[in-house]
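FORM 12-B: Structure-to-Sequence Request
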């Protein structure tokens, strides 16, 4: 399985920490010290989870001639901030591409949905049910967020990304998906309370951030070690680590536990905030031009709920 192309879309509206200083007194220094976040993107009134997914899709296809829209035979979408729970972002992408009678699947596993979506593609590929797939991840966090919430209201940003995957290598720069591991940890700690989004109640809240922090650091480190061991690789073989973009302190903690220098960790949270399951895919799009033959990239994620995973890529 190969990732042929990655493309991202970010809204143009930038919300800096000063917005929260004016709103509820949280200082720029207080926010950056605890999260690393300096700014985040916010969708404009005419944008939503589906429109951002469509723009990322358009960008992905403008960057390739080897993978045509009409060849897509599977679409898997991931989000926990849906614009419509019935006509999902995956359905919206299908209409955009105008491809009929193909599997269209939408999933929600919080911030780990990206890897669950890729693993679903892996299953379809293995069964011979698909050859060219599109994974789309998009989050409209600000539609559900309460800026007045001094605990977690300053964390969230909006954005989307698309991955084009195929069973065969289409170009030299394609990334070989060597291995994926995912798991649920819904029976651990405060998984049922730590991060919730109940639209009919009060949107995104995070009353147990310390529990999330602890388990995110533990599980992302552990699953990264497992996937490297499974593929007979050591930590020195890792060119880049792309963790879920939740908190800069989590990223640094995971790097430290693994024994990786900070320059090998890829982070976009400083300027984008927590963009949910789209964050790691956006980061992959950011470093795509820098990747060289022989590079090994590990994407590792953890989501509220709890769920986790890691994916090993090689150029």
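FORM 12-B RESPONSE
SEQUENCE OUT:
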């Amino acid at each position: 399985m190969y990732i042929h192309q990655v493309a991202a879309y970010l809204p143009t509206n930038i919300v800096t920490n000063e917005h929260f200083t004016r709103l509820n007194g949280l200082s720029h220094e207080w926010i950056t010290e605890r999260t690393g976040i300096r700014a985040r993107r916010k969708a404009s009134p005419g944008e939503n989870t589906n429109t951002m997914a469509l723009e990322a899709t358009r960008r992905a296809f403008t960057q390739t001639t080897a993978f045509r829209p009409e060849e897509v035979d599977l679409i898997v979408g991931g989000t926990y901030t849906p614009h419509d729970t019935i006509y999902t972002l995956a359905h919206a992408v299908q209409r955009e591409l105008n491809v009929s009678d193909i599997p269209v699947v939408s999933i929600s596993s919080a911030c780990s949905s990206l890897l669950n979506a890729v693993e679903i593609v892996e299953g379809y590929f293995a069964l011979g049910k698909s050859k060219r797939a599109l994974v789309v991840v998009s989050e409209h966090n600000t539609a559900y967020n309460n800026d007045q919430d001094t605990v977690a209201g300053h964390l969230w940003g909006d954005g989307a990304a698309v991955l084009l995957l195929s069973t065969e290598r289409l170009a030299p720069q394609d990334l070989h998906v060597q291995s994926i591991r995912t798991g649920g940890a819904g029976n651990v700690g405060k998984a049922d309370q730590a991060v919730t989004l109940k639209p009919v109640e009060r949107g995104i809240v995070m009353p147990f951030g310390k529990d999330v922090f602890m388990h995110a650091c533990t599980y992302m480190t552990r699953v990264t070690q497992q996937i490297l061991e499974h593929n007979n690789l050591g930590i020195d073989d890792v060119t880049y680590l792309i963790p879920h973009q939740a908190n800069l302190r989590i990223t640094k903690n995971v790097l430290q536990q693994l024994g990786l220098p900070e320059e090998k960790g890829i982070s976009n949270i400083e300027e984008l905030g927590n963009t949910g399951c789209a964050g790691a895919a956006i980061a992959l799009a950011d470093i795509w031009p820098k990747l060289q033959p022989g590079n090994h990239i590990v994407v590792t994620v953890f989501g509220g709920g709890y769920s986790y995973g890691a994916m090993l890529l090689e150029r």
